[in-house]
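queue> pop job 88
queue> type: inverse folding (structure -> sequence)
queue> payload:
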């Protein structure tokens, strides 16, 4: 969800205005995904590198996140949406960690859509954490090093139990993956949009999906049916 700050700057507004508008787009895209039958949507909200931003901006983003959790969990539950966060807990504020756990608990049984928030997330860090978990399992005698394969390793990632993405959308004309789901995106289709995230709306999501539907995904085979997750 790239471009909140630049969107605000081009309009002579504070960066907070861009992040506030960006939060509105999250709500819109979640609702659109639900209507379109998308089963999983993951938003890259805050990376491990984002801690290098000014403290005032980080505090503001945490307040937006807390407000989002306070206001949206009941709506998600009502709409049968399951909420999940991937990323490291620390150093997120304890109050945020508590609200995330409660939101995940309350919506755990929902199955119309899974909304995943990548928060304090970095894919290299995720892979390192997965290696540590597997190594710990081996050292405790719970598994054998020869047992590791692609599926086994995936079960040690933050995204355990979630399908790999079919489609990655990045806004603001940037054409990088930026340490996001490096393992999981191995076979995903990539879609780069010139619009800043605050301008990315339901029609843009539909356009991205329509573009995806035109592509042939073979996975080394022929004529694999398309689906979105």
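queue> result:
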């Amino acid at each position: 969800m790239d471009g909140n700050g630049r969107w605000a700057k081009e309009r002579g507004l504070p960066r907070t205005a861009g992040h506030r508008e960006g939060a509105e787009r999250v709500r819109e895209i979640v609702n659109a995904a639900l209507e379109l039958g998308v089963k999983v949507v993951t938003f890259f909200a805050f990376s491990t590198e984002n801690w290098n931003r000014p403290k005032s901006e980080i505090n503001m983003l945490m307040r937006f996140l807390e407000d989002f959790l306070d206001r949206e969990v009941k709506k998600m539950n009502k709409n049968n949406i399951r909420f999940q966060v991937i990323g490291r807990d620390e150093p997120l504020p304890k109050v945020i960690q508590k609200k995330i756990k409660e939101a995940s608990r309350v919506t755990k049984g929902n199955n119309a859509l899974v909304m995943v928030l990548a928060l304090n997330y970095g894919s290299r860090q995720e892979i390192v954490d997965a290696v540590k978990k597997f190594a710990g399992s081996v050292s405790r005698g719970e598994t054998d090093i020869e047992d590791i394969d692609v599926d086994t390793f995936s079960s040690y990632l933050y995204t355990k139990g979630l399908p790999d993405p079919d489609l990655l959308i990045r806004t603001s004309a940037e054409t990088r993956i930026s340490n996001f789901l490096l393992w999981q995106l191995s076979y995903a289709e990539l879609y780069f949009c010139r619009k800043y995230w605050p301008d990315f709306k339901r029609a843009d999501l539909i356009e991205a999906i329509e573009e995806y539907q035109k592509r042939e995904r073979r996975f080394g085979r022929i004529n694999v049916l398309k689906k979105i997750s």
